[in-house]
Amino acid sequence: MTRTNLGRRGFLFGAAGLGAGAVLVGCTSNEPEGQNNQQPVAGGQGANSEPGKQVTIGFSAPAADHGWMAAVTINAKAMAEQFSDVTLNATEGTNDVNQQIAQVESLINGGVDVLAILPFDGKALTQVARQAMDDGIPVVNVDRVFDTPLAYRCWIGGDNYRMGVNAGNYIAEELKRQNKNNPVIGEVAGIDSLPLTQERSQGFKDALQRHGFRVGPRVAAEFTPESGERQTANLLQGAQKLDALWNHDDDQGIGVVAAIENSGRSDFFVVGGAGSRNMMELIKADSGPVKATVLYSPSMASSAIAMARLLGQNKGLEDLAEHEIPAELTTYSAVVTKENVDNYMDVGFDS
């Protein structure tokens, strides 16, 4: 991933000086000049892109053993480099819960001003995050949520349920456009024991039901190309008829596409999930089964660093009336298609 991945989403939350700093009341009034008693509308706190107080941000995330997770750390580091008033102390990614706890404790003891943490296990990291909050260090919780809001000042993450909804809506509308009756719709999920997978599947099911359709053959993979290929091959062997397939994750989607190519089948289309550059290139080429992907963008890490900076400087989001950073920010799972793919290449990540 290059730094261009920050794009407009990387700077969405006040990092590019988008606002005017204050919202002015209208000039039209029936009152005589000088008699307008309206109060100014609350606004932001100046140009947030301008250098301010120096802020040291501690950053911790799991190991970069997955394209999406690797992009999280890449985006965080690249965003920090955009600010002359930010020093980023990033720990080495780890999937060892105890090691991540120790790393966060080290950041706390090192005197960081703000923490941005994507926990490998939200429940396990809750106590150390709460320790930081109790010590007066604001915590930006990224994606995998801690067990209590007392452990974070702000949460930013994706909308897993709506990701499934938007995938289901796109597939249903496309099948209706093709005049498909009683279509067979498959699903290659992620790890079924994870709440995020359950939420994605529920949203997918609910959206299809709304259109009068249902989920057909379904398998669960493990977010890896190998498991994606293996499980998709199993699904295709048992589904002689298939009209559409939703794959939850574009990293495992590499294997999903490989299994489809190996099968020689071309009787259905595929919608991916997360928004890898690999899948976006396939969508743009429009020469294979992949016709869309639903975003769950790692650019949320860029925004987390931008918000951590503002928290450290006691600023709000300059385009909003509130003086403080919101407690929660949920990213939107846009559907990327051939028609709009160029608009989203900037947030694509390498699988």
Automatic annotation (TrEMBL):
The subcellular localization recorded is: Cell envelope
Q: Where is it mainly found? A: other
What PROSITE patterns does this protein map onto? PROKAR_LIPOPROTEIN, TAT
Q: Give the top-rank taxon of the lineage listed in the UniProt record for this protein.
A: Bacteria
Give the Periplasmic binding protein domain ranges.
Answer: 57-311
Q: Name one GO molecular function term.
A: carbohydrate binding
Locate the region Disordered: 30-52
Annotated Gene Ontology cellular component terms: cell envelope
Q: Which Gene3D superfamilies match?
A: 3.40.50.2300
SUPFAM superfamilies recorded for this chain? Periplasmic binding protein-like I
Keyword terms, alphabetized = Signal
Q: Where is the composition biased (Polar residues)?
A: 30-40
Pfam family of the protein (one)? Peripla_BP_4
Q: Which InterPro entries does the protein's record reference? A: Peripla_BP_I, SBP_2_dom, TAT_signal
Coiled-coil positions: none
Query: What PANTHER family does its record include?
Result: D-ALLOSE-BINDING PERIPLASMIC PROTEIN-RELATED
Which protein family is it in?
Belongs to the bacterial solute-binding protein 2 family.
UniProt-recorded name of the protein: Sugar ABC transporter substrate-binding protein
Q: Which organism is it from?
A: Prauserella muralis
